[in-house]
Design brief:
6-stranded mixed β-sheet, 339 residues, alpha/beta, binds iron/sulfur cluster, Lambda Exonuclease, Chain A
């Protein structure tokens, strides 16, 4: 073949690249609920991956979830068969003072690089194991009080609910997923709980989700998001098991807090979310709408803050972006500390 010396590449043809149609995975909580709470925060930390200075919410919620997961594992004897059928610490509770003393001793031993003291209870042992894992991801408690409070709530939950709840737990961290036209939707349900008759039938199962907050402290918009989350889970559950779950339950762990363990479940600790087919369809449509909004925001790289009144002041108080955001303080912004 004669080569045109002035245009040596004229005969070379390069096929255009076929961009593969890769579907993005959207998590119900990490993506959809986060974006609905505050698009700017979502864009900064979830899309651009800036590291937040403090991960207070992540610490508290994750440590409660993971230690409770170990409590279920303990009861079912999955790691150590000898613990099967028993509650961690047999449901006993140690005082805040003992917890604090142990944390102080541990800190001292770690500082002096000497042998660390034995945890005074199984719950504290699980707590420290989980906390060490979180530390390696840069997630820490910002105060000692927060750590003591987390252990207190875990002990109370274990003592109050353990004997009736743990035997009914059919699965923990139950993964659900659905392949939609242009994205993959997934979620993780904290607990699948058999209804009282203990028939292992998917139609008799309840989905439980733990929240670290109190029901009364939850901003109405967040509550709508929690209900939305449970309805999307119900749809995913139906796609996986062919039937809807019997119930969708939110458990607000902070409702247990106080100087002593409650002798019966506080009225506001448990909230049953209604999951009628109509409500589920609405939630699934909203999910698809939110995915479109996220895709649009990605396209323009534009992440607007939540509007005042649509996000709790508590969420803004611990957000690193608050110094440059008009939303906190009822839309007045945060006063800068320097002149
Ligand atoms: S301060 Fe509040 S509204 Fe502003 S970005 Fe942070 S969470 Fe969003």
């Amino acid at each position: 073949m004669a080569i045109n010396k002035r245009k040596p590449f004229q005969a070379v043809s390069i096929p255009s690249l076929n961009t593969p149609n890769i579907k993005r995975r959207y998590s119900v909580t990490q993506d959809i609920v986060s974006f609905r709470r505050c698009p700017r925060q979502y864009g900064t930390f979830n899309v651009h991956k800036y590291a937040p200075a403090y991960q207070t919410q992540a610490y508290f919620g994750t440590i409660l979830h993971q230690v409770l997961d170990r409590c279920h594992t303990h009861f079912h004897g999955k790691i150590e068969p000898s613990t099967k059928g028993s509650l961690p610490d047999n449901g006993n509770i140690i005082s805040d003072q003992e917890i604090e003393e142990y944390f102080d001793d541990l800190k001292q031993a770690e500082g002096a690089k000497t042998t660390t003291p034995t945890p005074p209870s199984e719950i504290i042992q699980y707590f420290i194991e989980v906390e060490n894992g979180l530390k390696s991801q840069g997630i820490r408690a910002i105060t000692q009080d927060m750590r003591v409070k987390a252990v207190r709530l875990l002990q109370y939950f274990n003592a109050l609910e353990g004997l009736t709840l743990y035997p009914r737990v059919k699965d923990t961290e139950h993964r659900l997923q659905a392949d939609r036209t242009n994205h993959i939707l997934h979620g993780v349900v904290d607990l699948l709980v058999d209804s009282e008759n203990l028939q292992a039938n998917p139609a008799d199962c309840e989905m439980w989700d733990y929240k670290g907050s109190s029901l009364l402290d939850v901003n109405p918009k967040d509550l709508v998001n929690y209900e939305f989350q449970m309805r999307v889970y119900a749809k995913l559950y139906e796609l996986k098991h062919g039937v809807l779950p019997k119930k969708a339950i939110l458990y607000f762990l902070n409702e247990l807090d106080g100087s002593t363990c409650p002798s019966q479940r506080p009225k506001n600790a448990l909230l049953e979310v209604s999951i009628t087919p109509h409500e589920i369809d609405d939630a699934v449509n909203e999910f698809a709408q939110t995915v479109l909004q996220i895709e649009q925001a990605r396209l323009n790289d534009q992440w607007n803050p939540a509007t005042s009144g649509n996000i709790s002041e508590k969420d803004c108080d611990i957000c690193d972006l608050r110094w440059d955001c008009k939303t906190p303080n009822n839309g007045k912004g945060v006063q800068l500390r320097y002149p």
